[in-house]
Amino acid sequence: MTAADLAARRATAPERIDNGTLPAGSQMFYYCQSCGHLVAVLPEDWWRDEDAPPKQCDWCLGHGIELG
User: In the chain, what are the domain boundaries?
Assistant: First the structure.
């Protein structure tokens, strides 16, 4: 895993959806804190610790990328 691999991954990240602009009751979109790819789409009322979205995607976890 190189910095270039992560940069390439970030370059292909989808456009983020701003949850704050969605109507009440909409699903919430969560993105990897390392590369920006989508990690979860959850209902607005998910607020329980066991339902929390992951902070990183499987790709970043699999490549040993740590949150900084």
Answer: 3-62
**Per-residue pLDDT tens for 42-64?**
998 888 777 789 999 999 999 99
CA distance 1 to 46: 34
In sequence order, which ranges of the chain are alpha helices (DSSP H)?
A: 3-11, 58-62
Are 28 and 41 spatial neighbours (Cβ–Cβ below 8 Å)?
yes
Three-state SS at 51: helix
Residues 6+ apart with CB under 8 A from 22: 28
For residue 55, give the nearest of 47, 36, 64 by alpha carbon. Answer: 36
